[in-house]
Amino acid sequence: RRRAQNRASQRAFRERKEKHVQHLEQELETLEDKHRNLQKSHSNLGETNDKLKQEVEQLRSEIKNLRLFGDGSPLLGSPVLTDLDQFEQNGLFEPAGDFAF
After folding, report:
1. What CA–CA distance (Å, rounded) separates 28 from 26?
2. Terminal CA-to-CA distance of the chain, rounded, Å?
3. Angle of CA points 40, 42, 47, to nearest 5°
4. What is the pTM of this model?
5. What is the rounded distance in angstroms from the CA atom of residue 95 to the CA atom of residue 61?
6. Could you read off the pLDDT of 9-37 as tens digits, one per residue?
């Protein structure tokens, strides 16, 4: 009777252990999928960030060119440029640089 009870107890333990391992394997698969998706998203966001940095630099160059007429005199009275100047002076507009994540 005692041996039968021990065998039943061992069998129940093995079954619980197997279910736990299966659960952990499923969880691992789910987390690996999430990790792959996050890697793709990070890569896409990095590419978008690079494109936006290039666009910002291009727009800055265009603004710089617009500030000067052919004779070198500053472009005065432009609300866009005045607003941009105010943003820069108040520290609300920072030059593009490398961002750390």
Report:
1. 5
2. 64
3. 95
4. 0.53
5. 12
6. 999 999 999 999 999 999 999 999 999 99
